[in-house]
Amino acid sequence: MLFVMFSLDADQSINVLTTPALSLLLLGGLLGYLLGSVPTAFIVVRWKSRLDIRNAGSGNVGTLNSYQVTGSKAVGILVLALDFLKGYLSAVGASILFDRSFAAVAAAGVGSVLGHNFPVWLRFKGGRGLATAAGVFMYLSPLALAVWGLCWAVGFGAVRNVNVANVAATVVLVFLAWILPDPFLMGVVDGGDSVTGIRLFVTCTLTVVLVGHHKPFAQYLKELRTGIKE
After folding, report:
1. Within a 10 A sphere around the Cβ of 91, how many other Cβ atoms?
2. Cα separation of 25 and 30, whole Å?
3. What distances in angstroms separate CA 23 from CA 18, 26, 34, 202, 204, one per listed residue?
4. Helical packing angle, 195-212 and 162-179, nearest 10°
5. Secondary structure (3-state) at 210
6. pLDDT (tens digit, 0 to 9) for every residue of the chain, 230 residues total?
7. Main-chain dihedrals φ then ψ at residue 190, nearest 5 degrees
8. Which of 24, 139, 215, 216 has a CB 3.0–4.6 Å from the CB of 163, allowing a cystine?
9. Cβ atoms 55, 41 nearer than 8 A
10. How far apart are CA 81 and CA 36, in angstroms?
11. Sign of the CA dihedral with 194 first, then 199, 200, and 202 last
12. Measuring CA to CA, how many Å separate 20 from each of 27, 92, 111, 162, 208?
């Protein structure tokens, strides 16, 4: 139960089942999941072209496939903005409802990315979570989001592949969260009340993003190995 540690330092030892912490985590996570699970790409593409995005293009319910399926940059930008807002509003909503509790906000952030990637309304077939996670980081740590974006730009410049750049930048951000000095992390994450909680929030959120990218990344590795582009 990694979420439990969002509100704990490593040297604390309490039974969270008898404290409000578990309630904050569950309620924050539920709020985030419900907002994140709104299938924006599915709705926008169905409205624009009457297609089921799950059965078109890559089948991914996200920004890139929305653009590729419809051929419309406006649709891609709209889906990107809406997916970003899902993450941002999840964090803002949890902060307002739960008195700026970092545990609740962190759980809402993770929940929103889970909801985006595995929406119950679409039988758990969703997107890859990058834009939604970016929205969460925009609220909690704009600096982390900027570093993430910079790493993505470097990765994309090197390989010219969006999904590989996504994976590379995400892995780097998780790595940085675990090696940067404690005082620095506490200073760049809004409301963070423990270094352990911050690191687990970053790791859990971005692990969901990485899980969402496992198929395109595996395909990229296969293409490198065989020399055949699918």
Report:
1. 27
2. 8
3. 10, 5, 16, 21, 19
4. 160
5. helix
6. 444 445 444 444 334 444 677 888 999 999 999 999 999 999 999 999 999 999 999 999 999 999 999 999 999 999 999 999 999 999 999 999 999 999 999 999 999 999 999 999 999 999 999 999 999 999 999 999 999 999 999 999 999 999 999 999 999 999 999 999 999 999 999 988 889 999 999 999 999 999 999 999 998 888 888 876 66
7. -65, 125
8. 216
9. no
10. 13
11. positive
12. 11, 20, 18, 41, 26
**Residue 140: which of 178, 121, 112, 160 has the closest Cα?**
112
Of 66, 4, 7, 48, which is closest to residue 193 (Cα–Cα)?
Answer: 7
Q: What is the DSSP letter of 212?
A: H
**Contact between 195 and 9 (Cβ < 8 Å):** yes
Residues 169, 152: contact at Cβ < 8 Å? yes
3-state SS, 109-150, equals: HHHHHHHHHCCHHHCCCCCCCHHHHHHHHHHHCHHHHHHHHH
d(C-alpha 26, C-alpha 216), whole Å: 31
Cα–Cα distance between 172 and 165 in angstroms, integer?
11
- Reading the block at residue 195, the tokens are 């270094």
Query: Please, how many CA atoms are within 13 Å of residue 128, restricted to the half-sphere of its CB?
Result: 23
Length, in residues, of the chain: 230
Q: Would you state the structure tokens that stand for residue 173, as one six-digit string?
A: 């951000």
| 0.85 exceeded by pTM | yes
